[in-house]
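Fold this sequence, please.
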Amino acid sequence: MLTFTIRRLILAIPTLLFISLVIFLLLQLAPGDPMAQVPLTVPPEVKEKMREALGLGEPLHIQYIKWLRQFFWVEPLNLLDTWFGTEFAWHWVPVDSSISESRLAVLAEEGRLRDTAEGQEYWSPELRVISWQTRSPVMEIVAQRIPQTLWVVGVAYIVGILIALPIGIYSAYRQYSWFDNAGTLVTMIGFSVPPFFSGVLVIVIFSVQLNWFPSIYDTTLVVDDWESFKRQINQMFLPVMVLALQITSQISRFMRASMLDNLNQDYVRTARAKGMRERVVVMTHVLRNSMIPVVTVIALGIPSIFGGAIITEQVFKVNGIGQLLITAIQANDLPMVQTLTFIFAVLIVLFNLIADVLYGILDPRIRYD
């Protein structure tokens, strides 16, 4: 298993590089210009300098290599600097004419200026992946949005799994019972109804008519005491309910189908014939084998937590990653879109590997030679 895991990790490197190249080329071919939102009164020569400042005047392969270095080297170093207060992501830069005398004086006072044989150099942070829309580092914006997404989508995913697994197990064990028929009806409705309809429906019922929950998610709320925590749970209830309904519908159907497939296997009849208790047969032998395909669905669904629920976040005004991606696409913010898309790709590859490793844990018969 360890050999298989190492081999998959090594194989993931060229896979991610190829994915990053495809994402980069597709976004370069996409229509739109980052200078389109610049006022018409700005002279063309100024626009050209702005394009050069964004790195748009360089060849495509140079842009791609710079982005790879920023994503895989500069951003991790900045993360270390944030955690430990170091300056790993800083380097010496030659002084040019763009730096004013007052700025040089400040750098000298801070001890970030030195004289060399070639001239003066100043201690400066490495250039990070910068959003064209906000002119801020992309990863800082992502870090600000991640908590909102995890509060809503992450909790909904956990709630959906905790509800779906027991429903799927009991529905399969009591096939064609009233519980199974009711569960099938509810899950089919939950899986079929799109979130932009169910989201508006629960807002009309629980926010407008009953006035139980807020219809708009307050992203400025800071949870620092019991009262603010209750307000957070209260405003999370509706979006979590909408997302959990879809997640429950999908996973419970997979769980039911997998359980039904294993309940009719020979090893189950043999276990019963040996006198094993029904609970042990179902919850130990059948459930363990039935979880193998379900693990794939659960593991591959985890990256969607970090990707955010785009439609649900729009309906409830949750200022999360999904809404950030939509805003970046509308503003033609290529660094933001490229970075977010590649992060989702990394998560998908990672959780594919985790799902494969869990196969071997759940079923010892599986060997990776």
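The mean pLDDT is 80. The first helix runs from residue 2 to 29.
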